Amino acid sequence: MNTNTQITQRPRTLTRIAIVQALFQWEQGTEKAANLIIEQFLLHRIDPQCNEEIYNDGKAYIPNVNLFKNIIQQFVHQHSEIDVILIKTLPKDWPLHRLDPVVRAILRAAITELLNDAKDPPTKVVINEYIDVTHAFCEGDESSLINGILDNISRQLRPENASSADQT
């Protein structure tokens, strides 16, 4: 994973990085229950003593544990619906399993947030955050792929924000 000083200054971004790691772990671990993933992650992967660092001896700093828990719980509860949304957005000749597992975890986390009924944070913030998260994991063109897919999905899930996003 690439470290970025700018990311360490943004607590919600650090939390989203941990969310992506947990969703990656969920998929690799035969899709465990949300509470088990959260419990294991909090026990083995989070270091409350690690204030400004992304990693300290393999442990992460998660400034917003509630956001972490909420997204993981919502994803595990709705993962089938989230995957259907993602599959419908991908080209017909590009099945879900063909996506890189990290990219798949990033997209799943972002879609989970976009499904949030509160519409908070705003659509553009969610997309920008997950583009930044992509930069933490990937060095190639994955951020362009993430941006395009999330823009398309956000128009479906939050159409009321689509026109305002296009005007900025």
Automatic annotation (TrEMBL):
The keyword Iron-sulfur does not apply. GO terms for cellular component: cytosol. One of its GO terms (molecular function) is RNA binding. GO terms for biological process: DNA-templated transcription termination; transcription antitermination. It holds the Pfam family NusB. The keyword Transcription applies. Keywords: RNA-binding, Transcription, Transcription antitermination, Transcription regulation. Residues 15-155 form the NusB/RsmB/TIM44 domain. Belongs to the NusB family. Involved in transcription antitermination. Required for transcription of ribosomal RNA (rRNA) genes. Binds specifically to the boxA antiterminator sequence of the ribosomal RNA (rrn) operons. This is Transcription antitermination protein NusB. The lineage of its organism: Bacteria, Pseudomonadati, Pseudomonadota, Alphaproteobacteria, Acetobacterales.
